[in-house]
Design a protein that fits this description.
The complex is a heterodimer of chains A (about 250) and B (about 290). Chain A is α/β, with parallel strands linked by helices and about 250 residues long. Helices cover about 35% and strands about 25% of the residues of chain A. Chain A contains ten helices and ten strands. In chain A, the strands form two sheets. Chain A has a six-stranded mixed beta sheet, with helices on both faces. In chain A, helix 7 links the parallel strand 7 and strand 8. In chain A, helix 3 runs parallel beside helix 6, helix 4 crosses helix 6 and helix 6 packs parallel to helix 7. The longest helix of chain A is centred in the middle third of the chain and has 14 residues. The two termini of chain A are about 35 Å apart. In chain B, helix 1 packs across helix 12, helix 3 packs across helix 9 and helix 9 runs antiparallel to helix 12. Chain B is built from twelve helices and two strands. In chain B, strand 1 and strand 2 form a beta hairpin. Chain B is an all-alpha fold and about 290 residues long. Chain B is about 75% helix and about 0% strand. Classes of the chains: A alpha/beta (about 250), B mainly alpha (about 290).
């Protein structure tokens, strides 16, 4: 099943043409890795999927972008963002307790029942592989957690609102290798129930977790294929150059 | 050579830094010496809680309770008017207004801050005072309410510009994080931006109130200056500041009246000090 379909998608930020004629499909229950050097448009593409680009002044788009066969601009933006969750590069806990951080989005969407909330919190923390580390101190400030734990807390917070898709924007750029491994492990387990789009600067990470990999360069989608294919026999020389570290 | 230059510049900056503290101490000592002398004539509790301010009758009655109430009433009124409007205005400018309107509004706020207080007082006297008089069917429009409204205008620029700065400096990522969870714009403002900027907003409010309580000219012109404990906001009141400004010129140097005015200065100083310390405590509690 196809989750997202982009056809001839072009976007601009003021004068800058950030995505050029992008055609791409995101399948349900896959991890799609998106790689490319900075300014390649990979994050702009990701932020199209939950319409976060709309916040930028001077943003324009044309072409088509569908989510579950429905034109993305026709979906109510709050509902779209609830269905398409996002985890950012820097862990961004709110100045609240661990429990309240996870419950935050749930409460915002109108859930009031305490038991239901604590069930959701427990389930989300388990899915993010954080439960065992924090279950005895749920009322401690989220700032007391390590960077890797904070990032998994943010994943749990995103999961708590029960999205269908999770967008990861360089989720491990500030983490040590062990925390990175834990986040990757969580992602691999999550793809059973969710569709994941992962933007990463770490080419090896794309190779480790991605089912398919897309390579962006200067706003164009250069190549999209199964991850093994991209990393063993890419069909475009620019892809080959990038993953071998010749530029970028 | 460079070392010598370095040395002199460092010392010069040190002297500048110390000078400000030095002057504050001098002012405070002077104020204390002149003001505390009043307690030779009247005991502190009669001074603070005395209900009658008749400084030139025989014997003089130097109770400043009516003046304290006057100041507090006008300040409270101004705060009730200016805080919600000021904070809402800051939210609008920082978050909602399109770029052009934002520029116009910010310029307007700066302009409001640039109006001298005597001009505001004058405008209040000829427009607001008659209006208050007719609307509430009062014998005079020179009331605490008029003073509070005009002072709200004076506190507004401070509150708006500092609160707007505080809101603007909330990291963009907070906002995106809230939006990404599916929050509406209002939910983002109310649950993320306002709490994140709350220390700055409290500081803005405190500075606004600080400006109000120290303001003299406008209140002297439009509050009626009756040194009576106010029973409502629709009667004339006299503030601490207005009393000093109005009476200092005619008080005989060295008289008990003269010392009493300095003691009022000390009371004002203490009130401002308490406001600043509260603001500080509040700011540091969050860190």
């Amino acid at each position: 099943m196809v989750k997202f379909t982009a056809r001839n998608l072009n976007i601009w930020f003021g004068q800058i043409h950030a995505l050029k004629n992008v055609n791409i499909e995101v399948e349900a229950n896959e991890i799609l890795s998106v790689i490319g050097p900075s300014n390649s448009g990979k994050t702009s593409f990701l932020r199209m999927l939950n319409r976060l680009n709309d916040l930028n002044p001077g943003f324009k788009m044309n072409g088509e972008l569908e989510f579950d066969k429905e034109e993305i601009r026709k979906i109510d933006v709050e509902i779209l963002r609830k269905r398409v969750g996002m985890v950012f590069a820097l862990p961004l806990p709110l100045p609240l307790s661990i429990l309240e951080n996870v419950a935050y989005g749930v409460r915002m969407h109108g859930e009031k029942d305490r038991n239901r909330i604590s069930e959701i919190v427990e389930r989300s923390l388990k899915q993010a592989y954080l439960w065992d580390e924090v279950k005895d101190r749920l009322n401690v400030s989220a700032f007391k957690l390590s960077g890797g734990q904070q990032q998994r807390l943010c994943i749990a917070r995103t999961l708590a609102v029960e999205p269908e898709v999770i967008l990861f924007d360089e989720p491990c750029s500030g983490l040590d290798p062990i925390s990175t491994a834990k986040v990757e492990e969580a992602m691999l387990k999550l793809k059973k129930d969710y569709t994941i789009v992962l933007v990463t600067n770490n080419v090896k990470q794309a190779a480790r977790v991605g089912d398919r990999t897309a390579f962006f360069l200067s706003g164009e989608l250069v190549e999209l294929d199964r991850t093994e294919k991209i990393f063993t026999a890419p069909s475009d020389t620019r892809t080959d150059g990038y993953i071998r570290g010749k530029f970028g | 050579m460079r070392k010598v230059k370095e040395f002199f510049i460092e010392k010069l900056i040190l002297i500048c830094g110390l000078a400000s503290i030095f002057f504050v101490i001098l002012i405070f000592l002077f104020l204390a010496r002149e003001g505390l002398a009043v307690f030779k004539f009247v005991n502190p509790s009669n001074f603070l809680f005395g209900k009658n301010w008749y400084p030139i009758s025989e014997p003089a009655q130097l109770g400043i309770l009516p003046l304290i109430f006057g100041s507090l009433l006008v300040t409270l009124g101004a705060a009730i008017i200016s805080i919600p409007i000021g904070v809402a205005c800051a939210v609008y400018i920082a978050e909602i207004a399109p770029l052009k309107i934002k520029e116009i509004l910010k310029a307007g706020i700066e302009l409001l801050a640039a109006i001298p207080s005597v001009v505001l007082g004058f405008i209040g006297m000829v427009t607001l005072v008659p209006w208050v008089k007719t609307v509430f069917h009062l014998p005079t429009g020179l009331t605490a309410l008029s003073g509070a409204i005009i002072l709200a205008f004076m506190a507004m620029p401070t509150i708006v510009s500092i609160a707007e700065d505080a809101l603007y400096s909330v990291p963009k990522s907070y906002k995106e994080g809230a939006f990404a969870l599916g929050a509406t714009h209002w939910q983002t403002i109310y649950r993320v931006l306002l709490p994140a900027a709350s220390s700055g907003i409290v500081a803005a409010v405190m500075l606004g109130i600080g400006r109000v309580i120290g303001e003299t000219m406008a209140v002297m012109m439009i509050t009626g200056n009756a040194a009576v404990i106010p029973q409502s906001i629709l009667v004339p009141v006299r503030t601490l500041t207005a009393t000093i400004a109005a009476e200092m010129g005619e008080a005989v140097v060295g008289s008990e009246h003269y010392f009493a005015l300095f003691a009022i200065g000390i009371v004002l100083f203490i009130i401002s000090f308490i406001i600043n310390v509260t603001a500080d405590l509040f700011l540091h509690k969050r860190h």
